[in-house]
Automatic annotation (TrEMBL):
Record keyword NADP present: yes
Record bears the keyword Oxidoreductase: yes
Enzyme class per UniProt: oxidoreductase
Protein name: Succinate-semialdehyde dehydrogenase/glutarate-semialdehyde dehydrogenase
């Protein structure tokens, strides 16, 4: 895949970029290693000052970078600006909390004495250069939620971004440099996917994090396993959105529309499978379908656009195949379902009912504004369908019954359970999944400690 900015709203190539050669990659690896030796000795206060400066610059740039994001991957410009603001918030959160999250920990005095020592502590030390392989769908946020904690922990970053968002990738490198970080603290590598394996095998690279597809995660995990390097993987999702009889149906349907179509549905944590109790199925479906039909689809640069194009023609073709397979299998199209004529990679908000286990759309992730509806008789059936997937990223539950909440929290196989609200990432809460959605956690204290050397320091009596 060429490294290029291609406008999804028109299909036109805006700019192409030359991939870095071996000499430039080597220069940047050397720079990362050399920079780490000194950056690791900086204080939390110094790092926080730089990260606060980066947040201020990003916030000031949000209109400009918002237009870049929209041009590169099609997100409505209002959502792109909101993404920039969210990144600035996360930078400030880690700048303000990293020292506390990575403070030395002292074991219980009784345990120290039992060990035969006079004192002991646990210290979190940085690992070194971390390779980040990031996707296009949230081209700022996916990077910042790795970079902010990594930099605050004393690591340095090497970014291999998706090949269709090179302008955003280069902006990020420039942002951290403008903020005062030494050049080697954060570097963008304009490279294709084929170059990742050699870089990950390089001894100077100490760990890797990847957000993306399951095949990409398998490849990175395999190489990292061979090289015995730490990895964090956030892969696909097919999140359930469960609605029980006690729920606020009007609110659940309203949020369901946003949960399915934010970023044109191109989100791992977007709600994708809507599992609704039979007692409220018809009421929820009526409101949900009406909300999906009412969405404004169009030019993502227009302020009132709610759903823009998908990021690529391949993405549209994948959706078409999944919908057509479901219809052949007996699914009913309640709205949408037809690719529009004209330029750009658009697909309408679509709702399908009558889904069964034999359809591809039941098993595969739908990365676009297509929702599937399931009618269930009770909580047990809801849990059964919710867990009938290889993925386990997050989940949404709508009920006012605390006993039902307890059951869902106990039984849903996911990295998150969001009750009476849609899944959303926040710097204070751990984020990640189970099963084929990956392993490890981003964000919160758990995320910043993923790329630390957790060191025991023990003193004899």
């Amino acid at each position: 895949m060429p490294i290029a900015t291609v406008n999804p709203a028109s299909g036109e190539t805006v700019r192409t970029y030359q991939a870095m050669g071996e000499e430039e990659i080597e220069r940047r690896l050397q720079l990362a290693e050399a920079t780490f030796r000194t950056y690791r000795t900086t204080t939390f206060e110094e790092r926080a000052r730089l990260l606060h400066r980066a947040a201020d610059l990003l916030e000031a740039d949000r209109d400009e970078i918002g237009r870049v994001i929209t041009t590169e991957m099609g997100k409505p410009v209002t959502q792109a600006r909101a993404e920039a603001a969210k990144c600035a918030k996360a930078m400030r959160w880690y700048a303000d909390h990293a020292a506390e999250l990575l403070a030395d920990e002292e074991p219980a005095e009784a345990d120290v004495k039992d060990s035969g020592g006079s004192r002991a502590l646990v210290r979190y030390r940085p690992l070194g250069p971390v390779l980040a392989v990031m996707p296009w769908n949230f081209p700022l946020w996916q990077v910042v939620r790795f970079a902010a904690p990594a930099l605050m922990a004393g690591n340095v970053g090497l970014l291999k971004h998706a090949s269709n968002v090179p302008g955003t990738a280069l902006y990020l490198e420039g942002l951290f440099h403008r903020a005062g970080f030494t050049e080697g603290c954060f570097q963008t590598l304009l490279i294709g996917s084929a170059a990742v394996d050699d870089i990950l095998r390089d001894e100077r690279v100490k760990a890797a994090t990847l957000t993306g597809s399951e095949p990409a995660g398998r490849a990175v995990a395999a190489t990292a396993g061979e090289m015995i390097k730490k990895t964090v993987l956030e892969l696909g999702g097919s999140d359930p959105f469960i609605v029980m009889p006690s729920a606020d149906i009007d609110r659940a349907a309203e949020v369901a529309v946003t949960a399915r179509t934010q970023n044109a549905g191109q989100s791992c944590i977007a709600a994708k499978r809507f599992i609704v109790h039979a007692d409220v199925f018809d009421a929820f479906t009526e409101r949900f379908v009406a909300g999906m039909k009412a969405l404004r689809v169009g030019d993502p640069m227009e302020e009132d656009t709610q759903v823009g194009p998908l990021s690529s023609e391949r993405g549209v073709e994948d959706l078409v195949e999944l919908v057509e397979d479901a219809v052949r299998g007996g699914a009913t199209v309640l709205c949408g379902g037809e690719r529009p004529d004209g330029p750009g990679w658009f697909y309408p908000p679509t709702v399908l009912a009558g889904i069964d286990r034999e359809m591809r759309i039941h098993r595969e992730e739908t990365f676009g504004p297509v929702a599937t509806l399931y009618r269930v008789a009770d909580l047990d059936e809801a849990v059964l369908i919710a867990n009938d997937t290889d993925f386990g990223l997050s989940s949404n539950v709508w009920t006012r019954d605390e006993a039902e909440v307890d059951r869902f929290v106990r039984d849903l196989e996911a990295g998150g359970v969001y009750v009476n609200g849609m899944t959303a990432s926040h710097p204070a809460f751990p984020f990640g999944g189970v099963k084929r959605s990956g392993y490890g956690r981003e964000l919160s204290g758990h995320g910043i400690r993923e790329f630390c050397n957790i060191t025991t320091v023990w003193h004899g009596a």
